[in-house]
Amino acid sequence: MADPRALFDLTGRTVCVTGASSGLGRQAAITLAAAGARVVAVARRAEALQSLCAEIGADAAYVQSDVANQSQTEALVAEISRPFGAPDILVHAAGINTRQPADEVTVAEWDRTLALNLSAPFFLSQAMVPAMRQRGWGRIVNFASLQSFRAFPGGIAYGASKGGVGQLTRAMAEAWSGFGISANAIGPGFFPTELTQAVFSDEHRAAGNAAQTCIGRNGRLEDIDGPLLFLCSEASAYVTGQILMVDGGFTAK
């Protein structure tokens, strides 16, 4: 019997992680590099990307870019593919939550939210799928949310985009899994990131969210490591079109 640990080994794989400058994206880049992958980190903040690559070492490179700018997708894919070749694995961790009440949502903020949270994962994946298809192997991991299933105050644009990510994930699986390319999503609960700073800065609110989980606490960054590695590796070979909620049981109650 083969060593089961080999199922999670990413040696020889190349990973692209968007939104890698902070939070869960940064954690994803570090985790996948530790599993043996070469990592290309993508975000808008060069200094944070440089710090990340310095921490990972020679098997990391970065591209400073706004992935929501679809007119630059072709050029972005070329930049991402330059250091280590076309990626085998694509992790879409970039996201935004404007937290506008429904009556105050503007067209500009609505469009900005959907461009980054929903359109970017599709069009970047679409551009990278041909290389994965040629190899007969690929992994796409989107980031869904509690708001893929629940309505939160001030979250109508974000929730609409993350609900869309759920269906996008299923549609990607239908389109590409026959070529060896799986598409799944992680749905994080409440984790301490820049995106959730407003939540964690309110101790009462943070405690209330923790109490809503089955486990009784909010997420820690390292809680994402195992589920992400599973979905990016050979361990999930027969898993596609799924949303894996990493929320401590928040959505179970």
Automatic annotation (TrEMBL):
The record, for InterPro entries, names: KR_dom (IPR057326), NAD(P)-bd_dom_sf (IPR036291), Sc_DH/Rdtase_CS (IPR020904), SDR_fam (IPR002347)
Domain Ketoreductase, first and last residues per copy: 13-189
Q: Which GO terms describe its biological process?
A: fatty acid elongation
Q: Which GO terms describe its molecular function?
A: oxidoreductase activity, acting on the CH-OH group of donors, NAD or NADP as acceptor
Query: This protein's superkingdom?
Result: Bacteria
Q: Do you know which Gene3D superfamilies this protein is assigned to? A: NAD(P)-binding Rossmann-like Domain (3.40.50.720)
Cross-referenced SUPFAM superfamilies: NAD(P)-binding Rossmann-fold domains (SSF51735)
Spell out the family assignment given in the record's similarity comment: Belongs to the short-chain dehydrogenases/reductases (SDR) family.
Q: Which PANTHER family match?
A: 3-OXOACYL-[ACYL-CARRIER-PROTEIN] REDUCTASE, CHLOROPLASTIC, SHORT-CHAIN DEHYDROGENASES/REDUCTASES FAMILY MEMBER
Query: What's the name of the protein?
Result: Gluconate 5-dehydrogenase
From which organism does this entry originate?
Ruegeria conchae
